[in-house]
Every structure is written in C-alpha cells, then in structure tokens.
Amino acid sequence: xxxxxxxDELEKFIHRTLRSLPERHAxxxxxxxxxxxxxxxxxxxxxxxxxxxxxxxxxxxxxxISAVAAAVLVLGWFAVSRSPAGxxxxxxxxxxxxxxxxxxxxVSGIVDKAGLVWRAIPPLWIHGALAFLVAxxxxxxxxxxxxxxxxxxxxxxx
Length: 158
Known about the structure:
Elements: H1 7-20, H2 30-43, H3 56-82, H4 84-96, H5 98-120, H6 123-151
C-alpha cells in the first residue's frame, strides 16, 4: 500500500526507523587520538593561537599599540604630504616614473569629476537613498529574525 503520509506521520515514521537502527561504536583508537589532540592543543603557547585566546591584558596592549601606530602613520603621512619636502619627494617620484604622472593625472581627473557629480546631487536625494538603505537593512534583519524564529521553533517531542 503506497499511501501518502502527512508530514507529522512521515516525521514519526522516520524517527522510529532511525531509533531502530543499531548504535555505531567509535573505533578503539578514537579516544586516544582525541585525548592526544587535546593535549597537543593545550601545549601550544598563547602567541601561536588565535587572537581570541590571548590574555586580556595582551589584547588590550595590542589594540593600544596598533591604534598608536596607525595614528603615527596617518599623522606622518599628513605632515609629509603638506610639507615642501613632501612635494619634492612627489616631484622626484614623478621624474623617475613617467607612468606615475599619467596615473596621477587620471586619478585626479576622476576625483574631480566624481566631486562635481556628488555636488550636483540634491541633498534630499542623498538623504532619501540613505533612508532607503537603512529601511532595506532593517527589513532584512526583521525577515531574518522572523525566519529564524519560525524555523527554530520548539516542536513537540515524539
């Protein structure tokens, strides 16, 4: 008899069938291999592990040092680019690399044209586009949350 089962009957049938299968036992060497791997991972020093495993003071120090290094690089670049010596360096680079002047002219032209286009767009359009993007992301998050709740809802046990 090939009658169609409704989803609940099918679920119960599959559940009974899977429960009736004999349990598979792990190989005898599995426990030893797992314990050896746990010991191996525990022996790895923290600086060879991912950032999440670093001690908290070291993570904070790393973040502070990274932020200071980034700030020094930005301030240094700004100081060099605004100084007469920076202009000299750029002129020297242009004289040694002919294609650099062409690249600089092309990039400068693109930036100038993009600035003209950006300034030609009415602010209301920009604000409207940003509001639309925010609404799209909020909708995406809402639909994702609703789908998650729907698909992970507690089902009655069999």
